[in-house]
Amino acid sequence: MELRTLGKSDVKITPIILGTWQAGKKMWVGIEDEDSIKAIRSAFDAGITTVDTAAIYGDGHSERIVGQALADVRDQVVYATKVWCANLKYDQVIAACHQSLQNLKTDYIDLYQIHWPSGNFKTEIVPIEETMGALVKLQEQGKIRAIGVSNFTTAQMAEAAQFGRIDSLQPPYSLFWRPVETDQMPYCVDNDISIIAYSALAQGLLTGKFGLNHQFAEGDHRSKNKLFADRENYQRVQAALAQLRPIAESYQCTLAQLSLAWLIAQPQTSAIVGVRNAEQAVSNAKAAAVKLSSEDLAKIDAIGHTVTDNLDDNQVMWDF
């Protein structure tokens, strides 16, 4: 699989990135550690050598599973993890990084990201200068190679960039969720900041496996996702999927692979994709080989807008 440069750093990432929120188990159902480890390893074997996790995913459990799955090939993989918004004071960032290093069984993190700006989820507001000061210090010590932010607006990125180089933004971004295109993307393109899209398959919607009357199991956070919860939105989604299926068939690929191929063809964008099993990991990796014509990229783009043009400007996907 081709490698791409992360921002202005010397880190090289794959266009398809393995997401491991599920591996943390919390807020998901039916997840077993053995299956997560097999999926992570299968993704690696299929060429996905960049893995995204976070300290908050199962209170470190996801990080520990990643470390367990890939410790013997650490020198061949890129680890991206995140510090939670309740831990953004200087000393807290340092401590959180050391805990993540321990969880991941490594002495360096390739990409260390601020998961949410301070103040989110009723956390204490910490000056970004203080947080960035800790991240720059960790970078100088060689404990992290690159600094990223997640769920930041353009203004928040610009402020953070005054105190250290930002190499990536991790926003929610998929064919069915696109506020980043009009807000942060122009800034990222102008400043060589990589876009690492999470919920790249709209939390599974773009696989086409959820029918019109799908009900999530109790405890599955996707029941609060606006794309699923609003019935009018959900009907528009199903209509769009019906239009996408013939295009996928013409490329002899799945709906998921088509949607990922469209996403990684967008400016400076790579896609994080979560998996539950080895088969999904292998299938997602194949999306990197799907090369869409400019005509089909435009057609897919227009179909996506039949869903997104009816959404509000709020970039948060869930009504928690």
UniProtKB/TrEMBL annotation:
Residues 15-303 form the NADP-dependent oxidoreductase domain. CDD domains: AKR_AKR11B3. One of its GO terms (cellular component) is cytosol. Keywords: Oxidoreductase. InterPro entries: AKR (IPR020471), AKR_Detox_Biosynth (IPR050523), Aldo/ket_reductase_CS (IPR018170), NAD(P)_OxRdtase_dom_sf (IPR036812), NADP_OxRdtase_dom (IPR023210). The keyword NAD does not apply. PROSITE patterns: ALDOKETO_REDUCTASE_2 (PS00062). The keyword Oxidoreductase applies. One of its GO terms (molecular function) is oxidoreductase activity. It holds the Pfam family Aldo_ket_red. PANTHER family: NAD(P)-LINKED OXIDOREDUCTASE SUPERFAMILY PROTEIN (PTHR43364:SF4), NADH-SPECIFIC METHYLGLYOXAL REDUCTASE-RELATED (PTHR43364). This is Aldo/keto reductase.
